[in-house]
Specification:
Distance between the termini: 43 Å
Helix content: 55-70%
Order of helices and strands: HHHHHH
Oligomer: single chain
Number of strands: 0
Amino acid sequence: MEENLIDMTALIGRIDRLLMEKKLSAARMARELGFSTGLYSQWKKGTQTPSAAKLLAVAQYLGVSVDYLLGYEPNESAVPLRRAIIAE
């Protein structure tokens, strides 16, 4: 059996916190990203794991990096610096 390398509890916690801070609902995010409204619920229940493409879409939608969502980057404050470096 394949081991899940994503800490789904941490991932969902970060997404939920960002949605709350931005006063957005998970349903609105799903709708605007073209996901089924039940997909995020499946992530929360652990019955589905997000694909790399979906994680990237969510990160871009929320204005953070995929690394932040996955817990590899301690906070989203590095995002503007990273964008500036990439732009140059």
